[in-house]
Amino acid sequence: MLGGMAVVTNTAQAANGPTTSYDRTLGNPTFEAARQANGLAKEMSYGAILHAWMWSANTIKAHMAEIADAGYTTIQTVPISEIKGPMHGGQFTENWYYVYQPSGTKIGNKVIGTEAEIRAMTAEAHKYGIRVIADGVINHFTADWNAIDPEWQRSEYFHTRTEGNCGDNGTAINYSQRWQVTHCHLLSLWDLNTENQTVANKMKDYLVRAVDAGIDGFRYDAAKHIELPNEFSTYSPYYDTILPNGAQYQYGEVLQGDNGLNAPAYPALFSKYSTNGGGNTASKFGNALRGALQGYNLNAGNLSNLQGDGVRDNQLVTWVESHDTYANTNEYSSQLNAWQMRMGWGVVASKSGGAPLFFNRPAGSGGSNPRFAERSSLGDAGDDEWKHPEVVAVNHFRNAMEGNAEFMRNCQGGNQCLMIERYKTDGNSNNDGVTVVNMGGEKNLAGMATTLDDGTYTDQVYGGTLTVQNKKITSGNAPAGKIAVYFNGSASKRGVVSVSGAKSFKTDTTTVTLNSRNVTNTRYTTSEGASGSYTDGQTITIGRNTSYGSSITVTVTGTCEDGSQVTDSLTVLKKDPNAVVSYTAYAKKPSTWSSIYAYAYVDNNATGSNVIENAAWPGELMTAESDACNGTADQVYEIPEEMIEEAGDSPIRIIFNNGGPGQIAGNKFPGDAVSTDPEDHVDAAGLQIDGSYVWDGNLTVSSTSWTEAACAPIVVNSISINGANNGQLSLDLADAPTAKLTAVVDPANAKVSWSSSNAKVVSVNNGVVTGVAKGTATVTAKAGDKSASVTVTVTGEPPVVASTTIYYPASKFGANSTYLHYRVNKNGAAGTWTTVPGVKMEAACDGWVKYTVDNPNQDEVEFVINNGAGAWDNNGKKNYTGTGANLVIENGKVGTIAPCVVEVPVSSVSIAGGDFSLTEGASKQLSATVAPSNATDKVVSWKSSDAAVATVDASGKVTAKKAGTATITASAGGKSSSVTVTVASASVPVSSVTISPSSLSLKKGESGQLTATVAPSNASDKTVTWRSSNPAVVSVDADGKVTALKAGVAAVTATAGGMASSAIAVSVTETTVVPVTGVQVSDPADGKLELTVGASHQVKASVTRRTQRTKRVSYSSTNASIASV
């Protein structure tokens, strides 16, 4: 069959449409029509599950039709939450498990893809009636705390390392102790605190968002490590919170065998909150089945019971192997080969109980091959066993027998052959069937009893028949080493219609081909108005009624056996034959290829010399162009216009390659199908090109491998260059010929390209600048339409070179099998060739080999390259020649810039002089020394810890701003050194000091106060000191108080901030005392006075003294209560 049937509706779902899995699947008529058309099981708890292990969402989407054809009801993905890593690219070894160690609950990771890609995948699955289970890791996060999403980095969200009472930092779990199982740290991973309601709420939010993204169910990793709600004395809200999330089916990894494990309680919880059931993993039965396969002993009695430990059969997910039994280092199942696994699938998927899970192994792995052969990468589909005809037939058998009873018996009593009968006992043989799994020789089944209704049953794999009469098999065989699936499926064959042809043409008309399979009533219509019926393979002509520049759409329809409709369409552009046509191929050169070629040809079934091609294999070398097509590519090739013209309506195809033989894996894309039989080898068709397309450089085919180029420019806001001083950079050929520049661009995802205005003076490679010769050149970084430049001055003399090193791409002949055959032509005379094959070249840097030739006089070196076994690169029989320190062969050209630029790291940075002090406004020039002197990144950047205190410019000049301290740091190449600057306030000088009053006269013994005024008012030092010129006459204290000590004159001055005032004179005079000789009362004369109460009288007195100067008399009363005076 060409593909599973997809039922499509043109009705858009409203924004408030179904929010649960059931509503959009079993509750949606469109989904149900697709599921029934593809014959898939209704119950997820019964239908076969394809474990698309490590497939990306895009890979799953690309295989959806095949998955539907193969009869899988459900797809199980890897965990879809954010993760750390993977840390080792796309390899499986020691890398696969990162998806089981989430770092948070955002949706999307590097293996499954983005949330948008997951949504697209689930939408595609629902078109085919398929449901999707996501593996959910809800017990733990990564062991790397720093990798955990910041919104989850709270200690209360996780159990402590001692909470479970486990040894070895909480990781040594005793599985008979349920507290330890649920509280310790599995494999050192951070164990979620599942008793915390906030943790439960956050996890539910994640699961609800996953369901909204189209997920229909969950497989819960390490489910038994999470406590049941009432398992301990304190209620745990976790499961009751997270499980009502809208999922249709939920089951847990509850590995059996622990003492105290209440296994049936888990599926009871999962079923309680799911519309289509829930379950546990049947690990015990899987182990028993693998043992039976290993011993070729399919004893029916041993394989009848699914061994659920109290869990019902319809609550079990069964398997032959799981990702844990396969991928973990104990290798429980990886040593079984694909045939044994297929035999096991015949058993487990034919039984009535359980939902069988088919684990898809990585390509070429397991059995006699390594567990991880690394023939596929994370994100790729694995081997093709999942769609083996026997597996597919068993899946369809299972779907057809949904609801039927089961009976198992061995073939004629032999344990190497097992029959799994499914029956209804309703007299209708179309409802019954039997799968016969035979690990031994051919068996004749005639004579055996059976539960099947009478009739003839057809083997859906190999075409044989089995006849039953009166509950006895009368004829039929069990083919040796095969699975025979005998049933008469009533499911209609799914139909397919298609229309194919070139997407454009430049003639008046063109033809398209119409195909159909398993359909009737096939019809076509065109946008030009034509219509009619058609037969498979018919061609029709289109374009005659369409003008140039317009498109024609051809639509085909057909009716399937069940009455459903299928459709397909093709739109073809009619191009102007006079217009200039441009087909451009962009590519990202694979890291393992040293060069990339484009081999283009016209796909018109021509052979030999009649093939229209751009050049003989390997084609033409592509042109390197950094930042091509908005950074999606670094190589460009344009299909010659004459080739496009010559192709006419035939498609042009292109194959990218590294110049090596195309039949060797890894040398070209698309690669050929892997085959161990040379007679089965088929060259892969090239990629069709009819416009501008981009190859992503991935050698593994995916939906993004070859896409139409969308070269809309990224709008760049700004770009600047770090690593130079004010746009200047100096290089010294003798001492430091290299430096590292970095571009800072907005937006940060804009691609940056580097160029030099004169590559003979300065070369630049991804920001690493190398001086070539003395002179000046401009190095430019460009992103979009913005650019920034640095002027590079190269000085000094290069060291004397006494050798020539030749570099060659390692991918051409191999890193360990490339030989240099050379001679040194001294002074123009031909030298002597080395002995064939020459000298073996050694590994240089990634992708290159090298050999150093002694060449003290820098003579011409002539050379060719070979693989030591007869394959040569002799530059088109012209040989390679050159002289100088380096000769680099790339894309057939000789360069002189070594591809292995050795970046010398900075070991230390030191600042001369140590800590220092400045006053405000002052400055100091600092200098820094970078060691070693030949470090690649020697450009020093300066920084101040507090620019308000002191600033530092790009040259290291420090300027003091205000009082305080600041740390000045010089950095280069990831190393730094610091000094401390102490800034003192600047001194404001005193301009004048004045004293008031301006003079002072005192009598001996008296005091006076002087005041000093200091100008300006903000002078730094306003402290005043006083001075008397004659301290014996006048003393003056610190506050300006003067005291007269004796008669005379003294000059007093005030000084502040080193500025003295003008002196003021302080005069001191003596005070003379004249003694009184007598006092005489003159009135009343007799010295007696009588007064009535209230009356008054003036008493008069005179003083007798030696001088006649004014005399002052004082009066007093002996009894103021009688008379006052």
TrEMBL record:
Residues 715-793, 905-982, 989-1066 form the BIG2 domain. Residues 47-398 form the Glycosyl hydrolase family 13 catalytic domain. Residues 803-884 form the Carbohydrate binding module family domain. The keyword Hydrolase applies. Gene3D superfamilies: 2.60.40.1080, Glycosidases, Golgi alpha-mannosidase II, Immunoglobulins. Signal peptide: none annotated. GO terms for molecular function: alpha-amylase activity; cation binding; starch binding. GO terms for biological process: carbohydrate metabolic process. Keywords: Carbohydrate metabolism, Glycosidase, Hydrolase. Belongs to the glycosyl hydrolase 13 family. This is Alpha amylase, catalytic domain protein. It comes from Bifidobacterium gallicum DSM 20093 = LMG 11596.
